[in-house]
Amino acid sequence: xxxxxxxxxxxxxxxxxxxxxxxxxxxxxxxxxxxxxxxxxxxxxxxxxxxxxxxxxxxxxxxxxxxxxxxxxxxxxxxxxxxxxxxxxxxxxxxxxxxxxxxxxxxxxxxxxxxxxxxxxxxxxxxxxxxxxxxxxxxxxxxxxxxxxxxxxxxxxxxxxxxxxxxxxxxxxxxxxxxxxxxxxxxxxxxxxxxxxxxxxxxxxxxxxxxxxxxxxxxxxxxxxxxxxxxxxxxxxxxxxxxxxxxxxxxxxxxxxxxxxxxxxxxxxxxxxxxxxxxxxxxxxxxxxxxxxxxxxxxxxxxxxxxxxxxxxxxxxxxxxxxxxxxxxxxxxxxxxxxxxxxxxxxxxxxxxxxxxxxxxxxxxxxxxxxxxxxxxxxxxxxxxxxxxxxxxxxxxxxxxxxxxxxxxxxxxxxxxxxxxxxxxxxxxxxxxxxxxxxxxxxxxxxxxxxxxxxxxxxxxxxxxxxxxxxxxxxxxxxxxxxxxxxxxxxxxxxxxxxxxxxxxxxxxxxxxxxxxxxxxxxxxxxxxxxxxxxxxxxxxxxxxxxxxxxxxxxxxxxxxxxxxxxxxxxxxxxxxxxxxxxxxxxxxxxxxxxxxxxxxxxxxxxxxxxxxxxxxxxxxxxxxxxxxxxxxxxxxxxxxxxxxxxxxxxxxxxxxxxxxxxxxxxxxxxxxxxxxxxxxxxxxxxxxxxxxxxxxxxxxxxxxxxxxxxxxxxxxxxxxxxxxxxxxxxxxxxxx
Length: 737
Description:
Elements: E1 2-9, E2 12-13, E3 40-42, E4 62-63, E5 71-72, E6 74-75, E7 92-94, E8 110-112, H1 114-117, E9 119-121, E10 124-138, E11 141-158, E12 162-163, H2 165-168, H3 179-192, E13 205-208, E14 215-234, E15 237-254, H4 261-269, H5 285-294, E16 300-322, E17 329-346, E18 369-388, E19 391-402, E20 406-420, E21 423-434, H6 438-442, E22 446-449, E23 480-483, E24 492-506, E25 509-525, H7 529-534, E26 543-545, E27 551-555, E28 559-579, E29 582-599, E30 623-633, E31 636-645, E32 648-649, H8 654-658, E33 669-670, E34 673-682, E35 688-695, E36 728-735
Parallel strand pairs: 23-27
Antiparallel strand pairs: 1-10, 2-9, 3-6, 3-13, 4-5, 7-8, 10-11, 11-14, 12-13, 14-15, 15-16, 16-17, 17-18, 18-19, 19-20, 20-21, 21-24, 22-23, 24-25, 25-28, 26-27, 28-29, 29-30, 30-31, 31-34, 32-33, 34-35, 35-36
Helix pairs in contact: 4-5
């Protein structure tokens, strides 16, 4: 038997959805970038010194007329009085500077809605093939072979690059000649006065290069798995033996939108490429030729391969042993699992001596690894022990041995009690173990300088903040920071507990309520820089000093630290029956989260309960549920599903948190979200099933959030909770042969 399927997902951009508009300052949301299609002007340190490489037209900033304490350091001439305005370009508008604690630039800067330009759904082409063959090997044995293969091509599409001369090289400053330069000087002179300008100096800028095109990275992945096995019975025992091998190999290649840094800088520095074009203007032929010559399309970013070869064997059956207390015989199972996991990762394929820098390309050469592997060996045993007719116990234990980590033993105990026929009480306790990934262990270690001027030694200065009034903290320091893998990283360990009741008064109705709790110790994590600085006593070992006691390096690599506790209640209801010659069933599954807490180190205090708050990881919603109604009659099967997500605390914009901004409609809560999905399945043909579906039947928009897309795709909505696609249609064809 085999099946072949093909899936295709087309690109979906934010511009197609009104709710993705990031220009909603009255609700606490505005783009946080000044990189605009008509470039913004930027100050630079030393910008007023003609001998400095940063010498530029606005120097270190311009004094706002009539306010000597207000220095505009990023501004756009389109926003100045008498100029066309920020909104002359699509997706461009006034910068709500107060929301980002940049009130000094209020009214004189523009922003560009880059979250709206982002792709909400990346295009994917996928071909999947599954086949299984069996052979009778005797009266009580059967052999089988399974094959699964897939070929997937995905294309990541991002908004065009933001370009700044300090990131592409000083030769990338825009030159002091031509009509665009005069346009900028005239606009600045009219508002700020020519005496504030370094006329004749080049321009430092932030530019969103629309003519560069969207950034594209195409990844092709080929995966396969082949599994051989034999299963059968020997006496009262069932056995299964298997041997399998799987590979997954991928390669990523740059598409459009990426350019060689030096050629890009030369094109702008020569004046051929112009960052200051009004909507009715376009790049010259020389400018477009310079962009084409700088294109890095086709360069291989990196590739990788994982492999796994696995042997497993198990046996289950009736032990024939009875406790003699009124229960049944004890059933037991045992098995072995031996697998070898391989990993390799390669970076830039160009010759090491010929690798010109590509601006913004996410190369990962520091993490190149050549074919490493580890072997994992495990044995397990399990027993189902009926103590009495109404009470049984499930006992299991598993031992795993990992190369490089040693062994770990994890037990599981489960209890089931049926005091009456309609009621079942259950509980379980188990422990778990998770080893670090190859990346977490072996990623290349890099040492990077801290270039900011805002860091003091956190041993002597609270939070590592510079304080001019404190002699110990008045001078900034610039230690290096370590990033990458950590080979002595340990595993995470966990404990799971659950307790619940199932009530089934009839064959057509049942419900369950289950409490659960998960505790994780030694969490594998990268501590944030702010966490390190604000908790010096907890992370003192991460601050590396020289013999004189001076802080020279801050270790920002992975750590095993602290833990996490999560608990909740699961509710389920199932019912079924007959209606108008067909059969129906309803399934309700709800989850109520009680607690989600973290701590940085084992000896640290637990943090606040995060349930119902905005988070950079998964958002811990207080309540969510799914209700599915199914009805089947003849060759047709219908499914109607309701999906509900409870409201939660919104992300607070920086300016609101500091009290500088007070948006009229920001209430600090993201509303609840309910959608309905419908599908119809047709089953008249022997080998073919056809299913037509409508997702988000009533085209419900996601609830508004002031969340930006820095930690997950999207802005003004959060895809971790709500689906941005609106009403959409699916068609699935399954062919079995």
